[in-house]
Backbone:
């Protein structure tokens, strides 16, 4: 009989069969859940990325300090009005967390090719240590570190591959 909760040493519950598995068996290349959910590419990508809540609050803080249209500078014209046209901060944060690559991210949010290429150029600049580009986007000196750190976390988990 499966209990409602999993033990701390097997905290991951398979959604379909209710099996509890250890974290070490997540994304290990061998499915442990009946439907293979523990090897799902979105789940495995998200496992390497910052938590959605952290990403959402980071995006929210940029909007709070720069105004509702600020993220247009990163994500293009659909990112105005505090990301509403893209489905809101939470949806963008989830897409950043689950999208394996920048192409997947663009597809998830239906970004225009030109916006996607702009976003790619921002990431490339960060990867090459060119903070001048971030400054030209109006990112303040006291935010550069945070923005760079955030973008690097995505790059280091294969976002530009």
Residues:
């Amino acid at each position: 009989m499966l209990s409602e909760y999993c033990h701390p040493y097997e905290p991951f519950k398979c959604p379909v069969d209710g099996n509890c598995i250890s974290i070490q068996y997540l994304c290990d290349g061998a499915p442990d859940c009946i439907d293979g959910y523990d090897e799902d590419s979105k789940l495995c990508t998200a496992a390497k990325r910052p938590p959605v809540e952290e990403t959402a609050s980071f995006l929210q803080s940029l909007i709070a300090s720069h105004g509702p249209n600020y993220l247009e500078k990163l994500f293009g014209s659909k990112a105005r009005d505090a990301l509403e046209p893209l489905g809101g901060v939470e949806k963008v944060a989830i897409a950043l967390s689950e999208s394996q690559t920048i192409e997947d991210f663009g597809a998830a949010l239906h970004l225009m090719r030109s916006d996607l290429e702009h976003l790619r150029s921002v990431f490339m600049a960060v990867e090459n240590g060119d903070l001048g580009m971030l400054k030209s986007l109006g990112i303040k000196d006291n935010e550069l570190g945070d923005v760079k750190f955030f973008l690097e976390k995505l790059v280091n988990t294969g976002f530009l591959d």
Observations:
- The CA atoms of residues 28 and 38 lie 8 Å apart.
- The chain has a mean pLDDT of 90.
- DSSP finds nine helices and two strands in the chain.
- Strands lie at 12-13, 20-21.
